[in-house]
Every structure is written in structure tokens, then in C-alpha cells.
Amino acid sequence: MAAPLPQDLVEHALASSRGDDCVVIAHDSTSANLRWANNTLTTNGVMRSLSVSVVSYRALEGGTASGSVSGSAATFEQVERLVAAADTAAESSEAAADAQELVRGPAGVDWHEPSAETSVAVYADFAPALGDAFRRAESSGRVLYGFVDHDVTTTYLGSSTGLRLRHVQPTGHWGCTGKTADLVHSAWVGGATRDFRDVDATAMDTELERRLRWSERTVDLHPGRHDTVLPPTAVADLMIYAYWLATARAAHEGRSAYSHAGGGTRIGETLSHRPVRLLSDPAHPGLETLPFVATASSSDAASVFDNGLPLQRTSWIEDGRLTALAQTRETATLTEQPATPPIGNLVMEVDGAEARTLDDLLAGVDRGLLVTCLWYIREVDPQSLLLTGLTRDGVYLVENGEVTGSVTNFRFNESPLDLLDRFSASSRTVPTFSREWGDYFPRTAMPALRVPDFNMSTVSQAH
Amino acid sequence: MHEIDPDFAAIPCRRLALAALDRARALGASHADFRLERIRSQDLHVRDGRLHGAGESEDLGLAVRVVHRGAWGFASGVVLDVDEAERLAETAVRTAEVASVMTSQAVLVAPEPVHPDETWISAYDVDPFSVPLNHKVALLEDWTMRLVADPRVDHVYASVTSVLENKFYADFDGTETTQQRVRMHPEVVVHGSDTSRGVFDSMRTLGAPTGRGWEYLTGTGHDWDAELADLPGLLEEKLRAPSVEAGRYDLVVDPSNLWLTIHESIGHATELDRALGYEANYAGTSFATLDRLGSLRYGSDLMNVTGDRTVEHGLATIGYDDEGVAAQRWDIIRDGLLVGYQLDRSMAQLHPELNDGRSNGCAYADSPGHIPIQRMANVSLQPDPDGPDTDGLIAQVERGIYVVGDKSWSIDMQRFNFQFTGQRFYAIRDGALAGQLRDVAYQATTTDFWGSMSAVGGPDTWVLGGAFNCGKAQPGQVAAVSHGCPSALFRDVNILNTAAESGKGA
Questions:
Q1: Position B506 pLDDT exceeds 50
Q2: Residue of B162, B419, B442, B449 to mutate when probing chain A, most A C-beta within 10 A
Q3: Could you tell me which of A457, A38, A439 has the C-alpha nearest to residue B443?
Q4: CA distance B76 to B477
Q5: Quick check: is A127 in a domain?
Q6: Residue A2: which pLDDT band, with cuts at 50, 70 and 90?
Q7: A52 and A94 co-located in one domain
Q8: What is the residue range of A381's domain?
Q9: Whether A294 contacts chain B with CB within 8 A
Q10: Size of interface A-B (CB pairs under 8 A)
Q11: Is residue A299 part of a domain?
């Protein structure tokens, strides 16, 4: 017997619920990955999953209660069990603090289209080229380590209030670390893709070869504040963290760097004197992402009552001024702001930098550093958004505008909000992939930034 | 003694395994294993006395892993029928064929004794999924209402994550295991502010995540009522505390903080897959490379570290790993010297010098949809049998800091340079505590830090800490793991002032 379609599972759940209202979200995913180390493939996988989340709502005196249950579900019987559990959870709960009117709407025209899929065939061109790259690296004293992943998830959201929303999200990324045969020097390249048609294993290895050549000369450098060029990937490492912590609830409750001293949020305050814009837009070309809220449980920045709410282009920072924080309709009432739920992409732009490239930034540096990427970034102080972390896989010395060698890795302590006000030059915005967070937040476009006094706190011997 | 959850026991695991393994054998695979897992988890969040979010999820699926033409092949799915089990075996074999072209070192799996029909269930009293949701929420509402009523507290958040994990495993050799375990992670955080100084801060409970059931929240294994009662006062003192003067100090580190330093600087550094470079593109490698086995001085003579998957209530404790290997306990560091690693079966085959050619049972996946990788055991620092209590360690310090509770953590890709903060830091003056300090972080290089360990607390100071959120591998996998340790004394450690680090001055 053929397994039921995800749309059928959603309809069956809606019909089965004994709640006053119900929202059902199905994620139908296929993915394929290859992983390699020491110039040979290590692990791989071809995975299929189908998960269904049921949110049941029950009206009661003084408000509405909700109950959420998610699970792998391939049969009607599995869905019925999820529905029963969600209904029971709603019935045993009190009125929810985030209760709002559910979103209403008509069925989308694409609702009945089948799920999109991927398979290991997505690597038909990449895999043989990677095999060639292994042989070339092996013969020229280079060791390659890396990973490619491609996932296609079709999301279906149906509600008792009429919503039938469908969205297809292709997500791909690639990354490769190269080391010299003595393992003393290391470099990295990586990026995001939607279909792997634009990923070239030969070019990947060639760039690693070029960067490892930069390491032939090593220079001792002390920790301290250095003139530092952060490439777009490192800017993404920092700005994603700043974005994740930018919830209106935490700000309003006085427990984040976005809290106004004495109460309320810092919306409207100037964070940077530079023409900086930070935005998310589900329709951003090349970074297209889910255009409606689909959340299985409520948290600081998400509410199950907002399910199906359309997501629109949102400026978090405009001309250096904080203009919005991630929030639900509940916190929007508290903060007297529009509801601006989080969106799955992030773009930073600096007006006036459209003509400048990363190389142009390097050309302006007399003596400074070029970082490859950042790693193990964690919050040290929520009040200043002080983050610590390390440089990784190559820190290069720039002298008179050119890379002249490599230096050690460093531990840094910096606040991304401070950097927004302290950078001395910026490049144009380009699509990029965060080394640390990209596996979980792959859709970003960032400029390179030059920071005249980046705080390299101590030396890390890692190489 | 519990039984395997009846809903899981009703799944025809054996029939599906047989179908998958037969298909893999027919297609010529040299090794195959089959897993069917169900992971139930529930997250509850309560804020200021009111439910803030509740979600329950169940990850149920099956996976087939093969070795074919010298390469791994892995496939997973969610449809629990014979057709799907066979299809997954075929996909795994086909994926191995694609992989074999790019595999230059043929995969071999070290032999293991066969365990034909074993059942293992972890040690707990009350299955958290047997407790009604409204009872659980009521407990957290009570906790948070008590705290938010205190004028020193602005907001309070409480959360509990409960997990019930069932795992069936079968392989070509005839091993077949069915397992069940439970784990709990309760946490309460109070937030407060001192408007006169313009600062805000938080204080979190120290009760560790543990392999116990709901009884952990009602008095077994931790005294939550006592800890909650102390939080407002601890928070108030922290808000008023002076900022630390950066420099070098002697540290007495409480187990509630030290477990995480062990996790990062020893646990991950002695994973053999990292030492061999398998994680170079993601989690990183290790300074503790294989050529230094038996010669690397990891720390002082007082340092004895074991790996184990057997300690009662340990989060990484289990009967058999995801390659059918029985749980073990072994030495990783003895008298300060590196003597062992964490292994899986393919690495044991490559390095027979390590554990007589056997895996020590450190292969597991976080879910049915992911491939098993070499993963962390409970890695623990042993107490000094004749060691002092924590006060006895503090008494040995003239000018220092006592570190309690974990908070921020960060370590480099080779596990050299780390920086940790904590929930609270106390000044030590002339052998006694002298009030809290603010803005403290300790930063060191792994071998320097463990080399500076000059006294280790006695068995009475030993506590099993741990985490649910250890991250590794691509695609990313999370793991729950425990680390036991005593209090310990470290001499002359670099202390940063985090306010000065942010350029805000101290």
C-alpha cells in the first residue's frame, strides 16, 4: 500500500482533532550527504523523514489553551495518535499567555502539488570531481577534509481556519578544509547552494592550494588590538548570533543588549553611526525562505498562535538605527510595535560600499590581519553582547595591501554591536556562508568589514 | 524494574531487521547493521508562574548501514514496513557504491562478541511520560511563583526537558539488542537588575541533567527546594559584587563548573576520530595525537581520568552501543599521562594497539535518521581517595577565586585554548571565601591548566554533571553526556575581566 501523501495526513489530522481549532504542519524531507577526511570519503547518508506537528487549541474562560505534539508520521494511525496527544495537552492546559486570534485564509493554489525531492544523484558532477581533487591533493602534499549536504524540505501548513500553505525549501552547503601534509597549516572554503549546479570541486581545491601557499611564510604576532579584515563569512558568524539574541521579549524584560536602561527596548536608538542596514526578507533573491510562520511550540520569539502569519521584508537595523526586534503578536502588544517574527535569512548592507570588494579592503591595510572565519562563538556578557570565540583555519598577515604570510590563531572577545559602530571600511554585500552557524542558518549575505582595533585577546596554538 | 515500553515493544523490529539484513546480504554487503529507534521528548517552559511553551515530539524511524566494496553506505527512513526496510538496504548499498569510488582506505570493522538477544533498561523510578502534563506544569508554576514573588527577582524562567529513548539494534553477526533509557534536564534561571549601577544579571540552578526519571524533580538526587530558596540572595549578591581585577589567581573549581572544562578539554580531545582528523572540517581535531599515546603529559600526577558508559545515571550510559559493543570502563589519563582514547569498531580495527583490537563502545547516533559516529563516553576525573573537602581546598589558597556553576564556554579547534565563565565566583582571601566577584572568565591552555592542578578533592566532593547539547559531526548531531568530578585546586591561572575585554572598562 502506498504511503499517504503529506497533504492527506494534514487533512486527516484536521478532521480528527476534537479541539476548537487546530493547526497541522508537515515537513516532508529528503537529504543526501557526503563527508570526507584525509583525502578519502568517510561517512555518507541518504535520509528521508516526514514529521507532523499538531497544535490543538481549546477556548476556555479567560482565553485559549494550546497543546503541541510532533512526531514522525507516515500513516493515518500515527497522525491520529499525535492529534489525540495534542488535544489532551490542550485540555489539560490553562489559558496561554500568547493567545491571539488564529490566522485565517484561503487555500494556496499549489497545495496539491507533490513534495520536491533530492537524492545522492545531486552529486553526479561533484562526486567524480571530488575524487579527482583527492588524487591531485594527495600527489601535491595537501590533505582535504569536508562535507556536502543537500536537503529538500516541503512544508505543508493546514488550519481549521482555512489555511492551506505549501513551501519548498532547497538547502545545500559545501565546505572543505585543506591542510599541508605536515598538518601544520590549515585553510578553509565553503558556501551555500540551492542545487549544487554552482559548486566546483576543482575550484574549491585550487583556492585551498592558493591559501595554503600564503602560509609558507609564518610571522609571530602578539595578541592585542589589530587592524583586522573580517571576510563576509566571519561577519555572518557574528551577525547571526546578534540576530538570534535580538528578541523583543528579552529586550523588553531587561535581559539583553537590546534592553533600554530603565525599561523597554532600544528600538529607535542608534546602534551605529554608519549607514548600516540589517534585514530579512523571505523573497530575497537567492536566499528565498519560508514566507509564513510555522512553529510547533511557543518560545521567546515564536508563538503557535501566529502560525500561518505571512512574513514580510523586515529591517532590523536601518541607517544604523535599531528598527525592529524579533517578536510575536503577543510581544508586539507589549512593546507597541508591529509583529515581526524571525525569518530564515539575514542580509547586512552598508550604503555607499557597493563598488568595493574584499580585495579593495585589503588594499587599504598597511599592516593588519585577514581572518578566514570564526569558531566556537559563545556569549560572555548578555548586557554588552560580548562574544568570545576563536579564529580558525588561517589568519593572514596583510602588509601594504597584500597578504604576505600567516600568523597564529587567536581567541577574540568582541561585541558584534560594538563592531557595527567601529568598522572603518566595508565591501559590497555578497552571498556567504557562516562557518560556525551555516549548517543551521545557511542563507546569509554580508559585506566584508575592516575593524581597526579588533580585540585578539590571547593566542591559540591550534593549527 | 521497568519493562520495555509496550508501544515500542509492539513494533515488529525483528521482522524489519531480518528483511533489511537479508537484502543487504543478497546485494553483497560485507557488513550490515539495522537500527530502529524511537525518541520521545518533551519540553516545558514556564515563565513567572505561567506556561510559556510546551511541546512534545517523537522521532521514530529505521536505518540501515552497510560496508560494501570497502565503503560505508547509510540510509534512513520513517515508514515501518518490510518494503521500506528492504528499500533502505538497497539505498545503503547503492550509496556505498557511489562512495567506494572516492574511498581510498577500505573500511573494516573490528570483530566483537555476539549478543544474541539482550535487553537493557537504565536506572530510573518514574517514567516522565507517565506523569500528567498538568502535574508537571503545576510544579514549575509553583517554583516560579515562589521566586518571582521575591522583590530581588525581576523574572524567572523554568524549563524541563524529558527524554525516553528506545533503541533496537541487529547486525550480520547475530547481535540483537533492545534498550530503553530515560533522562531529565530541569533548569531554573532568575533574572535581576541593579538600576543604581545600571547592570542586570542572572543566576541559574546547578542541579545537573541526569539519567533519572521524574523522581529527580521531587527529591531524589537533588534538593531543588533548597537550591531555589537560595537563588534570590545569590543573585542579589552577584549584582552588588565588585568587578574582578584581571590577573593570575589560584582557582578552586567546583564540580558544577569543572565538568564542562573536562568535557571540552579532555572529553573531546581524546575522541580518536578527532585525533585522526575525521572532524577537521567541523568540530575540529585534537592536540592529543595518537603518536603521543603513553608519552603526552596531560596534567599533573594527580590527574586520573576514565571513560565509561556504565556509571549509574550517566547520560552516555547504556548497555550496548550502536555497533553492538557492550558498555565498558577504561583509563584515558593515568597519573597525568595520556593512556587511552574513545573508539568505535572501524578505528579499533585500524589501531589494535589501543584496546586489544576491540572497540570500547563509543559509537552512537543521536537519532534513527543519522549515521553512528564515534561519540563521547562519560569522561570523568577521579577523586583523590584521601583528598580534602572543598573547604579544605579553599583553605590552601591565599589569594584566589572559587568558581561555581557553568555558563559560557569556548575552546579552539584543537582543544588548546579555552575560556570559561560561571554562575558565580567568590574571592578567596587567606583560605576563606570573601564574597562574590563579577565579570570573571578563566582562560588557559589545556595542558597548562591540568598541569597546574595541585590538589584534588576527596570522594565526598565528587558530583556527576553533564549536558544534553554536545554537538558534533556533519550533518550535526547532539548527544547527552555526563562527567563526574571532584572539586580541584589549580595554581596561577589567567583571569580576564570581561567588562575590560568588551572595552567598557572595569
A1: no
A2: B419
A3: A457
A4: 15
A5: yes
A6: low
A7: yes
A8: 215-239+353-460
A9: no
A10: 282
A11: no
